[in-house]
Amino acid sequence: MLAVLKLRKTRNWIIQALFVGALAGIVIFGAVTASQTMQAQGMTSGFGFLFRSTGWPISFSLIPYGFGDPYWKALLIGALNTLFLAAISLTLSTLVGLLVAVLRTTRNGVMNALGTIYVDTFRNIPIILQVFFWYAVYTHLPRPREAYDVAGTAFLSARGLFLPGLNVTGLSAFIAIVSGIAAIVLALWIAHGRRFSRKKPAARRRLSWTVAGIGALAVMAVLVAGRIPDTQLLSLPELKGLNFKGGINVSPELAAMATAIAIYGGAYLAEIFRAGFLAVRRGQIEAAQSLGLSGWDVFAKVRLPLAIRAILPTLTNQYVWLLKATTLGIAVGFADFFMVVAVSITQSGQTMELIGILMAGFLTINYTLSSVLNRINRSIALKGQNIN
Amino acid sequence: MTATSHIDQQETARPAAWDWLRETFFASRLHAAMSLAGAILIVAIGWHLLDWAVLNAVFSSAGGPEACREASGACWAIIDARWRLILFGLYPHELHWRSATACIVIVAVAIASCMPVFWRAARLATLWIAGMASFYILMRGGLFGLAPVSEAKWGGLSLTVFIFSAGVLVGMPLAIVFALMRRSELPVIARTMSLVIDAVRSLPLVTILFTAAVVLPFVLPGWLQGDKLYRVIFGFALFFAAYQAEIIRGGIQAIPPGQDEAAKALGLSYWHRVSRIMLPQAFRNALPPTISQFVITFKETSLVIIVGFFEVMASGNAAYGTGDWRFAYIEVYVFIALIYFTFAFSLSRYGAYLERVMRVGKN
């Protein structure tokens, strides 16, 4: 018997079997306890609750939502809000990061100092503190009556930011956004994709601009056709009573989340971009300059693309991380996916099912984002060994 | 060689400082304009900050909130009035010295572990276990004639420090185990572990803390649940371990394969190879990312406010949210930001210093 145990192969099998057995044991133990707890509390398991109506409000939603709507719709709204916030704040933080990285890589001492102060300050303060800070700032702004305004069309007050908007139905706004993005992607693909590399550059450029133009026309047509009857197409916010009516309202919760993620994320992204800029060898920039390219062309056509190639894996991680930071919305009451799930748990008691949905949702979102970025990384990676 | 040094000598005929100034601030007309604009911006921001934070600020709470309303600058009076609440939370007022001493003990232990003298697994472990034990006795009481204080009353900075150090103390051994299991030659163990690590890493920390605080009581029988504080610390440690395991794995992978082969050739057992050859080198390789992970983890400790702990951020919110101080929120947040900044910035500077020293050692 002992001789058998000493055989390497047998021992490995036994260890793995014990490991799997222990894991399965923990899972079964948890499941049994959970079902006992549920029985004791008189609850039923299963996903039937998804079709019950919620009966509680959601402070911010992109699609119409009422008290009688079912749980699945509330969860969908939460997921959409998370994606919406992520799209805004990732874009903003990328812009901030690029700007600060350019400041930190110039040879100018004053600009360097500004960039360094920015990065060192905002990286060393917890993001949740920055969320609280901006939320406090936005909610302590003057009341709508004394709001700050930009030429009477945009207003900033304690009720949030009010911007001019369009009086169109949600569906047509959605179609317009999707077709706009599709036109931009198609135009970029025609201009830069390998598929069209046999065409002459001038013809490619013409084709690409045509596609972009058709896209812009289509967006306008959809918006005009989808306007809400008996209203003006352009909707300006105006003061009525104690609050503003019309226009687009960016709530203080959304504004605080977007500002905090943009500033905090910008400080981290700046360091990544800076590393990328430093990874581009001086000789390559000098070669571009000696070809007579202008300063902007050197940046846009040589420095930025080479830098992005060098940093895309790190950038992917940071974007996934920033996306997860949207869950802090619960601290100020922004109805993101996590907050909707947390409220659903306290309201419906379907703890296990909702936690499962939460985890599955985040795994899906993260996996999608990172696989898209990894795909881009593979497709733009330089093939061959001569340049890196 | 000779040609360039000749030019260099000619260039350095002028004072070197002047050259440096021209090179960094006035390399071209554009640079001169940028320097000027930047300098104006820095001076303007600096002046406004000085004006607000010092010149026109109210420092003493003697005049109450009314004195602040009349001044145009910062209202540090609220810090003067509420610093005990911010730093100690709900901890009994007359026992604040215990909470403060406990904090100082942990900070002293943290500073000591930055010294190379303590960089032995046994010494570090002894140092931290002794430190945590004295922290716990000071905070919890019930021994040596100290009045007992239940965990529900812990708060403020000492709670933040406790959650951070307990999470890291539990998380570090867990991370080593995770990393070793992920590199295991047994396929079932390696795959399961990589699945677990990736799953934990793709979830936001807030959801893990929430699960630990709210869902765990659901799947655990009563005798295993423990206080909410310890469940949250466990969730925190798990999250830390998943990230740290990947850092350690990176450190292990950077070890030249010859090291392990040589150890095998000498007939060392697995545990000897791991504890004497692999891990020491892995930790050396992974020291810079480990320190930045500590910085991130320290900042993330603040997230426990979401599952209802009265740590330094929550007590800060309470400090300005009650009574007549509602207008003084910026001062409270600046104060808390300074606390976090002090810890995080000094740790990250220490990390940068270590990285420099190690690079010198390698060349």
UniProtKB/TrEMBL annotation, chain A:
It is found in: Cell inner membrane; Cell membrane. It comes from Kaustia mangrovi. Belongs to the binding-protein-dependent transport system permease family. HisMQ subfamily. Keywords: Amino-acid transport, Cell membrane, Membrane, Transmembrane, Transmembrane helix, Transport. GO terms for biological process: amino acid transport. Its main location: membrane. It is a multi-pass membrane protein. Pfam families: BPD_transp_1. The chain crosses the membrane at residues 13-34, 46-67, 79-103, 124-141, 161-189, 209-228, 254-273, 319-342, 354-373. SUPFAM superfamilies: MetI-like (SSF161098). GO terms for molecular function: transmembrane transporter activity. The lineage of its organism: Bacteria, Pseudomonadati, Pseudomonadota, Alphaproteobacteria, Hyphomicrobiales. This is ABC transporter permease subunit. GO terms for cellular component: ATP-binding cassette (ABC) transporter complex. InterPro entries: AA_ABC_transptr_permease_3TM, ArtM/GltK/GlnP/TcyL/YhdX-like, MetI-like, MetI-like_sf. PROSITE patterns: ABC_TM1 (PS50928). Residues 79-374 form the ABC transmembrane type-1 domain.
From TrEMBL, chain B:
Residues 157-351 form the ABC transmembrane type-1 domain. One of its GO terms (cellular component) is ATP-binding cassette (ABC) transporter complex. It is a multi-pass membrane protein. GO terms for molecular function: transmembrane transporter activity. Belongs to the binding-protein-dependent transport system permease family. HisMQ subfamily. PANTHER family: INNER MEMBRANE AMINO-ACID ABC TRANSPORTER PERMEASE PROTEIN YHDY, MEMBRANE COMPONENT OF AMINO ACID ABC TRANSPORTER. This is Amino acid ABC transporter permease.
